[in-house]
Amino acid sequence: MSSRSSVVAVALALGAAAVVFQLKHTVLELERELRTTRQQIEEQRWRQQKLRADRAYLTRPERIAMQARQLGMQPLRPARIAEVGRIVRYDHLELAGKTVPFVLPSGAAAELRIKPIQTLAVDTGGPAR
Amino acid sequence: MSSDDLPGTTGQPDQTALRLGRKRLRVVGLVVALAFASIAIRLVGFVPDSRTAADDDEAPPRLEATALQTRPDITDRHGQLLATDLRVPSVFADPSMIRDLGGTAKALAEALKGVNADVLEVRLRKAKRFAWVKHQITPAEQAKLLQLGLPGVDFRFAQHRVYPAESLASHVVGFVGLDNLGLAGIEQAIDTGKLGEAGKQRAVTLSLDLRVQEIVQSELRHAHRRFRTEGACGLVMDVLSGELLALASLPELDPNRAETATLDQQKNRCSGLSFELGSIFKLLSHAMALDSGKVSIADQFDATDVLRIGRHTIRDDHAKRKWLSVPEIFMYSSNIGTARMTFAAGGAEPFKAFLTKLGLMERLSFEIRAAARPQLPSRWPDITTATASFGHGLATTPLQFAAAVASLVGDGTRVRPTLLRHSPEQAKLRGARVVSPRTVQDLRYLMWLVVNAKGGTGNRAAAEGYLVGGKTGTAEKVKNGVYLRDRVVASFVGVFPIDKPRYVVLVMLDDPRGDAGTHGFRYGGWTAGPIAAEIIARSGPLLGVPPSRLVADDGFEQRLSAIKGAAVTTPRRAENGLAPVGFDR
Q1: Where does residue B443 rank: exposed (0-12), middle (13-18), buried (19+ CB within 10 A)?
Q2: Complex ipTM more than 0.95, yes or no
């Protein structure tokens, strides 16, 4: 083996070792970063789970009912529910109170009264429980 | 003297020595090459890496299980959480890393509730490398310990099942043991595979509506306090799909503290125990008789005197001592009339076949394992047929009975109860037909009479704003084969709105006592009926059921007036509600 080729071979060997070492170091760093990120994701998932449980506890119907009572609210009763279409319109009510005078073809005077089609007396009281 | 003159030399270089030298060079070169190769191999990493996360200074504590490997969450039909897993820390200490054991034990005892400093110090002195300090600490305690920064004290995390709704729907959800395996309810069904594909999802969605569940449980608690019951059952079921919007059993238990629950608290009175339900069973015998074609709604039967079968006598609690029409028999809950109707329709064999069609002769196949087997007579002589027709001598679970009622008044097809929310496709599926559409209409009308006709046993079950039909029942309790005269099971099964049924509501009170408000009566119409009425009035708006309009019972009124000889009247109704005036709870 000539001395030149030996030198080249040794130089190549050293160079290859350096490259491989650098690659390995980079991979290890990336692996560490991946592990840390996965663990952080896990931490956040558990935290999210805890927040969901907290929210479920705070919004459970018993607690909402208790707080509603403290605020003086009452549960919705069927007597308080009405169909929108059955509620009389204010302008119809106004018309119902008025008469519209007009003249018949014969010349006689007459009055028109307008009656609302829908009537619903909405009870704002409601029965006591 | 030159090398040329050395003895043995001829003046030429020694070829052997040269060859030997080259060979040695090659060997050395090979060794060096091998050395480089081993370094290269090590660098590339073909040797297994023994580094772990624990070797990293910045890595957080190792977790016992990932958030993706937990048990499935359990939610109600709207996604409200009923059960979930949380990662909870427990504290341990390594005594070998603690210099002042006494001081550390004292500091830990101050920071953690329920830890005794002296007991802890003894434990730390006995242990070598590991000693538990406290399991499942709160976040506040964890924060305190982190602030103290005690050397040798660390945390270990484990999964812990929590139930945010506490006792709400506890008999449905069930609970887990220390090893996080299900021991009851849906928790157990998840582990046994009873839920099929639904149990393998990230979350199990139940059919329950937590708001309706709360209404049912609060009303049952009110009944339990007022009537001093031994227990109670309440349920709300979709009349077509069989989905249970609520299923409640008293006494309740808190699954967060399941280890302290008594046996009585663990009993599920809706599906885990069977009861003789009494007169509400007349719904089934009437349905059988009318559907057989041998009895029509206009028929009348002799209730002028008691009914004698062999040496047995059947009486009516509220004897009218006259011929009764079929509607009157149902409305006044006549045992004599019901027995006569059942015999007119063919007796034991058709009745048994009808109960089989409704699934009442076999154990209910249900997601929750605690479904009790019905208790049925082994032989059916006439007296057994007669008593079975009005709900005595055979016991079934309230849930099975409610499913049978849903089958009869929905669209006449078999309904199977379920605790899992149906998909839109599943909700459209229907079971086998059990009664004709004509029978369905007849039964709805009979149930309307019980609640809305004057003198009906269920007048107190009339709910504000909704047209309700139903049947009351009061059955003597049985102990060791003997009927207890002073202890009853009082029940009411209601359907609303009865003109176009959407839901079945069943309330059963185990051993209620009357009070001044019920004039001392314990009958189903006085105790269970008003509870069901309140459940309907409160839950109807939440379920999106529009209040019934007054015209809804016009059809029933017309039918009433068309029946010849029916001496039945209805009270005048208030304009803004459907509750008959003059009745109070």
Answers
A1: buried
A2: no
